[in-house]
Design goal:
With 616 residues, the chain is an alpha/beta fold. It is built from 22 helices and 23 strands. Bound molecules: ligand MGD (2 copies) and molybdenum atom.
Length: 616
């Protein structure tokens, strides 16, 4: 709920009636009054002829549209289609309003979709995350909710108060691990193997043999053939820890598996998910209140403008490693929205080269980011206080109407308005070039996105219904749980990746350190740095003191970190929270020290990054 005065946001608070958050805000939530009217916010469109020159000229929207339409018409005239036009959308705003951009580019009958690295989904259904309070054992696999998901913490504490065991499994001793009853420190990228080891023990101890016998499938055969001793060594887990985990699974009551993004940023992420899910299926935890797999919501892209006609689109990734001019047809124009790929994608040196190779780049944002600096055109856009939207939460699955509280900031425009005006002007040049639907208002556009699938899930048909509902009732605990068909299907031969260990995805002589770059407690990816929500004044790398001393590195010294992709200079800080072979830098560009850690980060699997460190 926001309070505004003279077209300014003056305060913001959570709604105590909210069934999941109970009205709590995170640090970034609290800072919105400062962020929304920040002096660095973009007020007007800007153009620079040469990308990266910094010679930006303030221009009018008319001029901006003219530049865009001219380029689009030129492309269409030359190629007879819009495949040379690429679209990239980041995670900056996932509201339904913002799918107007996706819909616009899909309406052109085939463009190039430049998609960020994919997230994996669980196969098991999502329980209500609040139900985790009823679990007896909570395994936290590479998630740091104390930093990245603070609304979950009260539910974890409640479970703990009721006697639940919290087990943090993370190569780094995180803030979340401090809350746990036990801390297990595996080698990164080996969670799939650890889960397989535990599955084997469960089966060995005859606990769930019946189910396994009935389904005598290769999924289990490979687990039974596993060399436990060697596997434990690969995971870096000692016997005592293994026995502790086994005992919990054997006698510990309902188990919840909270899975974070950490284990899913390695090459074997799919295996990791499947083997942890198998742990749940074998014990039947997903059928119990408090049990199952706690990962982000799946199947939440139900609104009409989220259904994209990918068929005609060409799909491209930065990590395919091919420059735009090499594509056939080449990429001649790029539209970026809600994202900062020039700082946030893996191997950003290549990404920057990629963006630079494209003759005309447009970025829609509220701030001038490293991506904006590399664009020809920057379009200022509204924040969610200045536009109407439907928001679906990616964690607890709730849905809400986002009321417009303020007029657009200076000359910024909402994405719906930008896409609508462009659609109109394009069709004035040549009728039917775009089939983007033209509505009179944001609300009319949003109302048109409801459909049967939305009704089936939320029982609402339009914004009016949504306003009345206020909060979507979350899935009651224990409902919509896994059934037998799902189990059979899950273990079906050939359905899941075989258990494997990729020895190439380990540190080596040349690059003996892992570089982990997880999410910052007071930032949101590349956002919020300039608000100074923390004492930190610059980016730094954390290193185990013993590892540092061996290299003669002092606490606070500027060091070079490098690998085959490049090198960065950054301040080293000692931290006993890390094992000797892991270096840690928070993910997200830091404008104050200008460190681009993603120059070193691997492009397809962000946490399969190996580096070395040396004194300057
Ligand atoms: N404050 C804040 N909140 C955020 C965000 C933010 O930037 N700031 N970003 C949001 C977004 S977009 C996302 S995706 C989520 C991500 O938030 P999380 O799900 O917490 O994911 P990460 O921060 O990537 O990493 C979590 C942990 O995984 C560990 N880890 C790394 N590799 C492995 C491994 O192989 N095995 C195991 N067991 N652990 C491993 C890391 O040490 C780290 O502690 O947070 C969201 N919430
Ligand atoms: N090293 C490393 N790299 C990572 C990660 C990591 O853990 N380590 N995590 C990865 C993950 S999980 C993610 S999700 C990505 C995130 O990377 P991105 O998807 O690029 O997300 P942000 O850095 O938050 O940038 C979002 C941009 O959108 C803008 N924005 C905010 N609201 C709006 C809006 O309403 N409209 C428009 N048009 N723009 C808006 C913001 O100003 C910001 O510039 O980073 C990935 N990169
Ligand atoms: Mo993310």
């Amino acid at each position: 709920m926001s309070k505004t005065e003279h077209h300014k946001l003056v305060s913001l608070k959570g709604d105590r009636a909210h069934p999941y958050t109970k009205g709590k805000l995170c640090a970034k939530g609290f800072s919105f009054p400062e962020k929304n009217g920040h002096r660095d916010r973009l007020k007007d469109p800007y153009y620079q002829e040469k990308k990266g020159s910094g010679r930006f000229k303030k221009i009018t929207w008319e001029k901006a549209y003219e530049l865009i339409i001219d380029k689009m018409m030129e492309i269409h005239g030359r190629y007879g289609n819009f495949l040379p036009l690429a679209f990239y959308k980041g995670t900056g705003n996932r509201g339904i309003h913002h799918y107007a951009a996706n819909e616009f580019f899909s309406s052109l009958g085939g463009t190039t979709e430049l998609t960020p690295s994919m997230d994996n989904d669980a196969l098991l259904p999502n329980p209500d995350p609040a139900s985790i309070r009823n679990a007896s054992v909570i395994f936290i696999w590479g998630a740091n909710p104390a930093a990245s998901n603070i609304h979950l913490i009260p539910y974890l504490i409640e479970a703990k108060t009721k006697g639940a065991q919290l087990v943090a499994i993370d190569p780094v001793l995180t803030e979340t691990a401090e809350l746990a009853d036990a801390y297990i420190q595996p080698i990164p990228g080996t969670d799939h193997l650890l889960a397989a080891l535990l599955l084997k023990k469960l089966i060995d101890k005859n606990k769930h043999v019946q189910f396994v016998h009935k389904n005598n499938l290769s999924f289990f055969q490979q687990i039974m053939e596993l060399d436990s001793e060697n596997a434990a060594k690969v995971c870096g887990i000692n016997n005592e820890a293994l026995q502790y985990l086994e005992a919990l699974l054997e006698n510990g009551g309902t188990c919840a598996h909270l899975i974070g993004a950490g284990p899913l940023k390695h090459s074997n992420s799919r295996q990791t998910l499947r083997f942890i899910e198998a742990l749940s299926l074998l014990r039947g935890d997903e059928k119990k209140d408090g049990g199952g797999i706690f990962l982000w919501q799946k199947n939440i892209s139900l609104f009409s403008n989220q259904q994209r006609d990918r068929g005609k689109n060409r799909i491209a990734h930065f990590h395919s490693g091919m420059l735009p001019s090499k594509w056939d047809p080449p990429i001649e124009m790029l539209w970026i929205t809600c994202g900062n790929p020039a700082a946030q994608e893996g191997n950003v040196d290549f990404v920057r080269q990629f963006i630079n190779d494209i003759p005309f780049v447009v970025t829609v944002d509220q701030f001038l980011t490293p991506t904006g600096e590399m664009s020809n055109l920057i379009l200022p856009t509204t924040s969610f206080f200045e536009e109407a939207d439907i928001v679906v939460n990616g964690w607890h699955g709730g849905i809400a109407f986002n009321e417009k509280a303020l007029p657009p900031y200076f000359n910024s425009k909402s994405e719906w308005r930008i896409m609508t005006e462009l659609g109109e002007q394009l069709n004035q040049k040549e009728n039917k070039l775009s089939s983007f639907p033209l509505y009179k208002s944001e609300e009319d556009y949003l109302n048109a996105q409801f459909n049967d699938a939305v009704f089936e899930k939320y029982y609402i048909k339009n914004i009016q219904d949504l306003r009345k509902k206020k909060f979507f009732q979350l899935q009651p605990a224990g409902e919509n749980k896994g059934d037998e068909t799902l189990r059979k299907d899950f273990f079906q031969d050939g359905k899941n990746d075989p258990l494997s260990i990729d020895t190439e995805k380990m540190p080596n002589e040349q690059f003996p350190f892992w570089l982990l770059t997880p999410h910052h407690p007071y930032k949101l990816n590349s956002q919020f740095h300039f608000l100074q929500l923390t004492e930190e004044r610059e980016a730094h790398v954390k290193i185990n003191p013993d590892a540092a001393k061996k290299l003669g590195i002092f606490d606070g010294e500027i060091v070079t970190i490098y690998n085959q992709q490049g090198d960065i200079k950054i301040k080293a800080k000692f931290s006993k929270r890390l094992p000797k072979d892991i270096l840690f830098i928070y993910g997200g560009w830091d404008p104050r020290s200008k460190v681009m850690q993603n120059r070193l980060v691997s492009s397809a699997n962000l946490y399969d990054t190996f580096v070395n460190i040396r004194k300057l």
